[in-house]
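Table S4 entry, 5-methyltetrahydrofolate--homocysteine methyltransferase.
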Amino acid sequence: MLLTYNIADTAPYINWIYFFHAWGFQPRFATIANLHGCDSCRALWLASFPQADCNKAAEAMQLFKEAQRMLARLEGVLQMKCLFRLCRANADGDNLLLDDITFPLLRQQTPHADDSPYLCLSDFVRPRSSGIADTVGVFASTVQGEAEAACGDDPYRQLLVQTLADRLAEAATERMHLYVRRTAWGYAPDEDLPISALLQEKFQGIRPAVGYPSLPDQSVNFLIDRLLDLSRIGIRLTENGAMHPHASVSGLMLAHPAARYFAVGCIGHDQLEDYARRRGLPLEEMKKFLAANLQ
């Protein structure tokens, strides 16, 4: 299913912590986004910082003001496009079986100090041996539009648009996932959480994105492309599986109440060989994709 959002639809779902992080600000400065915007509120917010941080807080305030102006300028210029598919699914060991696609995954191997289990995303999907089909969502989101007119040759404005576009892609995904949980998949039809709780991921289930710690192999984007046809929303993949435009995100949606995020971490040569076999790719190519996870 394809969903299209404009900036007014999407901006309320922006996680400003990550926007400010991209500009080198600590999370406490992102609280400027929580204000109503009146002069007295801004003055009280500035006064809440120690003297040593006042200049930095003032910079954050100005950056947020300029970001809001840029969002207004980009309204009607940028659109957020989201694709998702709800697949008939089962787990088969460390693989997911998604409709007619086998989607290999990685399992933690590094010993845990607390003896907790070694997790794989497939643990949160019904096993094939159960004889009962489960569901897994597959998604991709991107930002479309020509923003050059809003920034011209100004490097600062170009960076501002880039960091805003990254956040808009994630925000559109947040809104899409809300629709999936309540309506399209409907496993949480009565969910009624404020946006602040959504951004803290208080909802049921998880949405691991490609390239993140529990789904570190960027090349699985080729499998997602087979399931979604990413060209429908203007995404193309490089030979390494990176998405273009850069302001794009893809991944899985899992509904199990116990599902949680984790880091695969370092894997051994044994799992690397097994994973390469399951992916049907040469070992040397898998080493390239998983370089950050190799011991």
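The mean pLDDT is 94.
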